[in-house]
Amino acid sequence: MYQYQKTKTYLAQVPEDIKELAEEELKSLGAKETKLTYRGIYFKADKETLYRINYNARLIIRVLAPLISFDCHSDRYLYKTAFNNIRWEDFLKKDSSFFIIANVSNSKIKHSRYAAQRLKDAIADYFNKKFGKRPSVKKENSDIILNLFIRNNRAIISVDTSGGSLHKRGYRVESVEAPMSEVLAAAIIKLSGWRGEVPLYDPFCGSGTILCEAYMVITNTPAAFLREKFGFELLPDYDFNLWQKVKSESNKKIVEVEKGIIAGSDISESAVNAAKKNCSLIDENGRIKIEKKDFRDIKFEKKKIIITNPPYGIRLKTETPIENLYKEIGDFFKRELKGSAAFVYFGNRGLIKKIGLKPSFKKILYNGGLEGRLVKYDIF
Ligand SMILES: C[S@@+](CC[C@H](N)C(=O)[O-])C[C@H]1O[C@@H](n2cnc3c(N)ncnc32)[C@H](O)[C@@H]1O
Predict the structure, then answer these.
(1) What confidence tens digit (pLDDT) does each residue in 264-277 have?
(2) pLDDT tens for each residue of 171-227
(3) What letter would DSSP give residue 160?
(4) What is the mean pLDDT of residues 8-37?
(5) Exposed, middle or buried: residue 237 (CB in 10 Å: 0-12, 13-18, 19+)?
(6) How many CB atoms lie within 10 A of CB 7?
(7) For ligand 1, atom 27, which residue shows the shortest CA distance?
(8) Ligand 1 centroid to 297 CA: how many Å?
(9) DSSP string spanning 84-119?
(10) Could you tell me the distance, in angstroms and rounded to a whole number, from the CA of residue 311 to the centre of ligand 1?
(11) What is the mean pLDDT of the chain?
C-alpha cells in the first residue's frame, strides 16, 4: 500500500497569498482535516472527493498523492529507496513517459535537478532490469508527473493527481501581453463576492481571463471542464466509474445565464479576437459580450460592477503617460459607476494613488512571481 492509500492524506499546492480562500474551497468540496503549510494545504479525502476537487477547484494549483516518505541523507539512498520501495509498473508502462518536478531545501542533497536526475535513474534502471526497456522523460504532455520534495533531509515522492497545473483550464488558446493567471482571476472574483446580482464588466479584458473565470463561477462550470486527462487516472486504484459519476454530478449543476450578465471590451483588436476565441470555448452559446472599445467611450445604461486589470507596463501603445491613464480611469468610474463598485488589479502598486479615489479594500496578490494589489473602490 502506498502512503496516500493508508493515510488518505493529500497535499494541495496553492499560491501562498490565497491559502485561506483555497482552504475554504477545499472544504466546500468535501476535504477534511485541512492543515495549512507553506504554499500548501494537507487534507484528507476519499477517492470521490479527490476526483471532485481536481475537477472543480478554482484556487489550487495541483494535488499531490504521496507514495512514500523517508529520511534521506544522500543521493545513493534516494536512488536505492526509489528503486526498491516502489513498484513503478503500478504507475508507468515501459513505453510511457514521465516528468519529475523536484524541490530540495535545507538538506544534504543540495540541487533539485540532481535529485530529479537520481530519481529518474532509479526508475529507468528499475524498468531496464525488469522489462529490458525504460519509459522516456518528457517535459510537455508526459503521461505522468512525479513530484520529489526533500526538506530537512526528509524526502517525499508523490504523484501529481492533477496531471499538470490546474491553472491551465484549457480555454486560453490565444494570449495577449501581460495576461493574468487564471487562478488569480478566480481568486479576485471570489474576493469580490460577485455572484451575478449586477452585470459584471471588464473594460480592459485582454485575452478574457476575468470574463472566462466569472462565467465559469456564475454558471457552476467546473474549472477543469475542458481538461482531457488527470493524473489520478494513472493511480493503481483508479476507479473509472466513480470518476464518471463525479463528473456527471458536477456537470449537472451547470446552469445557463442571460446574455450580457458578463461583458467586456478592449482597445486592441487582437485582444478582442483572443478574448472572443477563448470565451467561445467555454461559453458555447455566446452569453459573454465582447467588443472593441476605448474605455473612455464606454457608457453604461444599467448598473454594473467592474472587475478589471488595466495596463501597467511601460509599453503602452497610446501616447498618454500611464499616470494620466489612471486618472482617466478614476474619472470614468466616477462618471459611470455611481452606486456601484470597481475591483482593480494593479500590476504596479505605485499607480494606486493616481486613480484619485479612496480605496475601500486592498489586498496583496501575486500574478506569477510579481507582487500586485487588488483594490476596491466604492463609488458614491
Ligand atoms: C494587463 S492587460 C489585461 C490582461 C487581461 N486581464 C488578461 O488576462 O488577458 C491590459 C489591457 O488593456 C488594454 N488597453 C490599453 N489601453 C486601453 C484603453 N484605452 N481602453 C481599453 N483597453 C485598453 C490593452 O490592450 C490590454 O489588453
Answers:
(1) 999 999 999 999 99
(2) 999 988 889 999 999 999 999 999 999 999 999 999 999 999 999 999 999 999 999
(3) E
(4) 98
(5) exposed
(6) 12
(7) 206
(8) 14
(9) HH--GGGT--TT-EEEEEEEEESSSS--HHHHHHHH
(10) 5
(11) 96
Which phi and psi angles does 218 have, rounded to 5°?
Answer: -70, -25
Residues with CB under 6 A from ligand 1: 176, 178-180, 203-204, 206-207, 209-210, 266-268, 271, 294-295, 309-311
Residue 244 CB contacts under 8 Å (≥ 6 apart), including other chains: none
Cβ burial of 3 (10 Å; 0-12, 13-18, 19+) is middle
pLDDT at position 317 over 70: no
CA of 357 to the centre of ligand 1 (A): 20
Closest CA to 165 of 221, 259, 230, 251: 230
Residue with the three cell numbers 482593480: 344
The pLDDT value recorded for residue 319 is 62
Q: Is the pLDDT of residue 316 over 80?
A: no
- What pLDDT, on the 0 to 100 scale, is given for residue 68? 98
342/329 Cα distance (integer angstroms): 11
Q: Which domains, from first to last, does the chain contain?
A: 3-160 (3.30.2130.30), 182-220+259-378 (3.40.50.150)
